[in-house]
Amino acid sequence: MPYILLSSSLNCFVYVTLYFCLISFERLLDSCTGSNISIFKNPFRNSIRFDLNVALNRFTHIRIKLSSHRRLIMNDLSKMDLVKYFDDERKSLPVTLQKDKLCSLIKKNETLIIIGETGSGKTTQIPQIVYENILGPDEDVVVTQPRRVAAISLAERVSYEVNTEIGDLVGYRVRFIDKTNHFTKIKFMTDGMLLRTAILEKSLSAYGCVILDEAHERTVNTDLLFGIVKRVQNSRKNSSNPLKVIVMSATMNADLFADYFGNAQIVYLQGRLHDIKIFHAKKNVEDYFHDTFVTIFQLHKEAPERHDFLVFLTGQEEIENMALAIEHINQDPSLRNYPVIKVRTLYASLPTNEQLKVFMSLEPNEFARKIILSTNIAETSVTLTGIKYVIDCGKVKVRCFHPETSMDALKVENISQAQAEQRAGRAGRESDGYCYRIYSKQQYDEMTKDPVPEILRCNLGNVVLQILAMNMDPYKFDFINKPSTDAIEQAYNMLGNLGATKNSILTEMGHKMTKFPLDPRYSKIILSSVNYGCMEDIVNIVSILSTDSIFVSSLSEKKKKQAEDAHTKFKSSVSDHIMLLKTFRSYRKIRKESKSSWCDDNFLNLRNLEYADRAREQLLDICRYLHLPIGQSCGDNFDPIRKCLLTGFFENLAYLNQEKKYITVNAKKECKIHPTSTLFHSYPHCVLYTEIIETSQPYMKYITVIDKEWLLDVVPNVHQRHNYQVLMNSEL
Ligand SMILES: Nc1ncnc2c1ncn2[C@@H]1O[C@H](COP(=O)(O)OP(=O)(O)OP(=O)(O)O)[C@@H](O)[C@H]1O
């Protein structure tokens, strides 16, 4: 921290004059703009030291006021409008009504657990309260969100409320985007981003307060953050800058968090601004997709125009199918007199700017209804304007890992009651709302209360890698719910086999792997592509796999045939990965202005390809940073690529037994090839898969044919294992 000793009276004179000039300028600004946004306190920390940051902060403050003033003019708002805005909208929120009580509790307690109804103002108001009343001039407040779309939209909202440009007083940082500057005081971040910050700067010294929002979600990153923040708080306990921690949610197990933080104080904030009426299906539901569609159809006929819907579904494919079905409603001549439906979609692999389109309102005079089809990405935190009706299918797609079999799979499961409450909470943000649950009350009662923490159901490879990157011991890490020793051991085994650790210590390869925001298996194939001369190709494949399917699938029977024909030129007889690569290579050769029509002609999803292109750029940046030889491609000789895939995915192998069934090498579980695979109708002896999807049965997705003899050269350390010997000896 840049302290300057006032060693001479001249220095003293210069700094004090500068300081008072700044104050006078600020006062002048206030009197011109009518603004009185909170004033910095304690300009002098003690009598002999002058903290340069104080001066910087005062500059910030002036910048912010100038920017507010600019916005005021730009938006043609009068001073009175602004004052009225602060008075009307925020005054009635339950959090604002209990501001004094909250302030004194935050001041008094190191850690506070806050529970308040959805929409009560926790996320938008509490960071402002902390900034205005609790923090010193050189301290920032950071608020974490499990998802980037929430972090961005909330930062935009709070920035609007304090009447500044985004990136000034209020900003956000999510993977690949940083909208903060040196002067930003209230920062919204994804939990993954704060985790990365903590790996680089262990004491989080810039922050006087960390707010862990939506704690009930229990993502892996939030669970890791709990441990890290608790450690940082303990280490700063008796220092001059202790850390305040606030844990918030509408639906969490408060006692669990209070115990974890050493009997922390819990505050229950009473009150909800708007009512939400909840309706359950009368009977147990079997086909949720069908019943969701019927509900949309019914409500569309009954609900007044401009009452928009938010529909929760499980994934991109389901969302696209529903969008197609809704299109038929628009074309139904008997519904001519009803508003036109404008469908918007929201799922994780959509590029961020596409995701943010759901926040846009319809034109004021349009005779239309907005229907947002979303995965659980819109489940927490966000306020989507116009939404009066929530239709909740009651399902969610989750990633599960079975340590005993090393199987990682995506599965559609029932949501928890906490998730059901959060989904309902998306209605009734601006006025009273309705929630239609596509499950009966009995089905609701049978749901678990809270979601199972992700850390207890995911592959821990990345978790162990991140903990090691912070020089901590994964077995001793202070988890809120400790994963089983088996699961940690499995992760160590996997990392050891990947060459990321040796004797439980990070190797040079392991250190490099921590630089990629990827599962270690993907980082490994990028790093080993150097030895196979195919880095460009592997980076392309990894980028494509980081988005949802690039092939348009929800089509009529006639169009399906056309799409198949169009995709023939990309086909590979040995690999889905190669097919993805060929498609991406062709896409990248097309001129920018023609990409859209080329994708239409070839039944490809432009948005997902654009996303992959951006991911590719980011990955190449990391490769450059690590001085890796980018640009190597193996052209049309695809064997090196297939071998390279094996260096990361050697655990994901399956072979065909004599009954013509695929058995996975490690778990010895029967699996089928996914119908979308280019290898669906062929029966190669040994295949590598990237993931398993469990619907009615387990399906292997993204498959490459492997010659089992390659194991000897490519992964000599694992080929000796018993399971692999079974594979080596297997015959058709
Ligand atoms: N982008 C927005 N546009 C319009 N109103 C908004 C927006 N964001 C928030 N609000 C208003 O502010 C209120 C409080 O929102 P906030 O996100 O702070 O609540 P919360 O208690 O954190 O809810 P949750 O638990 O669901 O995250 C909302 O109910 C809504 O009325």
UniProtKB/TrEMBL annotation:
Domain Helicase C-terminal: 295-471
EC number per UniProt: 3.6.4.13
Pfam families (UniProt xref): DEAD, HA2_C, Helicase_C, OB_NTP_bind
GO biological process: positive regulation of transcription by RNA polymerase I
UniProt-recorded name of the protein: RNA helicase
Catalytic activity of the protein: ATP + H2O = ADP + phosphate + H(+)
Domain Helicase ATP-binding: 103-270
GO CC entries: nucleolus
UniProtKB keywords: ATP-binding, Helicase, Hydrolase, Nucleotide-binding
InterPro entries: DEAD-box_helicase_OB_fold (IPR011709), DEAD/DEAH_box_helicase_dom (IPR011545), DNA/RNA_helicase_DEAH_CS (IPR002464), Helicase-assoc_dom (IPR007502), Helicase_ATP-bd (IPR014001), Helicase_C-like (IPR001650), P-loop_NTPase (IPR027417)
EC class: hydrolase
